[in-house]
Amino acid sequence: MPPKKHATRSSTTRSAAVKDAKTSKGTAGTEQAVASALGRDPATEDVTTKPARDKDAIPKATKPQPSPPPPPRPSTQKTTTPTFTNYTIPGSKNPIPCRRSVHDSGAPPRSPDLIFTHGAGGDLTAAKMVQFSEGFASTGSSIVMFQGNMNLSARAKGFDSVLAYEGSSKDKGREGGDASDVAAAFGGRSMGARAAVVASQARAQAQGQSHGKLLVLASYPLVGQQKGDVRDAILLSLPADTQVLFISGDRDNLCPLPQLESVRAKMKARTWLVTVVGADHGMDLHGGKALKKGTEEVGRECGRIAARWLKERDDKAREMDVWWHGERDRVLGTWGEKKGGVEDRDANDMKGRDAGIKRFFSKVEAGTKDGEQGLGDISRRRNKKMKK
């Protein structure tokens, strides 16, 4: 007995197509209708050949692919965790140790926004240098610190050495801007601040020099420690197109604020002042271990303020107070009007923040616990009032 033949899937499909074609077209148009039913073109193909399998003739419907997710929105607040690298500028007599902030691993070094140097007897590992540079670099701005000896003239030349080694801004540039527009600010602590002024003066006497037009002077030693002489001559000789940020403690015996105020009034250069409440010449807040954290945080915040000042300066707000608030466990500050005591500053804290502190502080909160308003809330309310 011959084996029983089984109908294949393709033959079954063809039979169904033939049956439907005969019903609708008649015998004469059967083959053409079959070809049409199977999705084939009788004008270009022999419809009597064995048809392809159904899965080839009638493709399966494909599921729609989901659209790729949109790229993440960039953060409106640029605050990063900074890292640093050490290097040495070679020299026949005195190599210069340097420390540079690193913002993109593997990327070429950026031209520095600020070249900064330490005080007499210090070095790049001094706590105040570390804290200031960490705060400065956390805003995304680039800083290079260099180490030098106690000779003022030699230290001032260190700024030129760093610029020469780092390369001109046109050669290296930096992200997000035209490299030809980048100019490095000069700055330093104590003796380093004096060296920055001397270096800026030297460049001001040369034509077409854009570096050193902005100065960040922390704990500037206005009064000599031994003879008590007032070191204001180099400040008074700065040209009018120079802009200076002083950062001084109100307990700094080498820079009494009344004397600094008098000098600022005589200077041709435009000046701003950040007063650190309770800080001495070394920017230390006295009060034992309880103020150790405050000293560190104030140091970092001063770095952040300096970085923002380099990017944006307000001619209508030239003076600022910052202080450590132990109960709130953070740095507070006000621009503009002062009223004497810390209690008065606390009472007017919100008013001071409302005057534009958001531009200079990185710690901008949308709101805080216990119903306290954050800097973001106050700034948004102020912006609405200004628009009206």
Count of domains:
2
Reported for the largest beta sheet, the result is:
10 strands, mixed
Tally the beta strands.
10
Q: Helical residue percent?
A: 25-40%
What is the averaged pLDDT score?
Answer: 74
CA-atom Rg in angstroms: 36 Å
Protein name: KANL3/Tex30 alpha/beta hydrolase-like domain-containing protein
Region (Disordered): 1-112, 368-388
Domain KANL3/Tex30 alpha/beta hydrolase-like: 113-284
Biased composition (Pro residues): 65-74
Structural summary, described in words:
- The protein is α/β, with parallel strands linked by helices and 388 residues long.
- The chain has 2 domains: 11-55, no CATH class; 83-313, Alpha/Beta hydrolase fold, catalytic domain (Rossmann fold, 3-Layer(aba) Sandwich), CATH 3.40.50.
- It has 13 helices and 10 strands.
- It has helices at 9-25, 30-37, 54-57, 127-137, 152-166, 169-172, 191-204, 233-236, 257-266, 292-311, 342-347, 349-354, 375-387; strands spanning 83-89, 96-102, 114-117, 143-146, 185-189, 214-218, 243-249, 270-276, 319-325, 330-335.
- A 10-stranded mixed β-sheet has the order 1-2-4-3-5-6-7-8-9-10, with helices on both faces.
- Residues 7-14, 21-28, 37-52, 69-77, 168-181 and 337-388 have low confidence and may be disordered.
- Residues 47-58 have a biased composition (Basic and acidic residues).
- Residues 1-112, 368-388 are annotated as: Disordered.
- Residues 113-284 form the KANL3/Tex30 alpha/beta hydrolase-like domain.
- Residues 65-74 have a biased composition (Pro residues).
- It holds the Pfam family Abhydrolase_11.
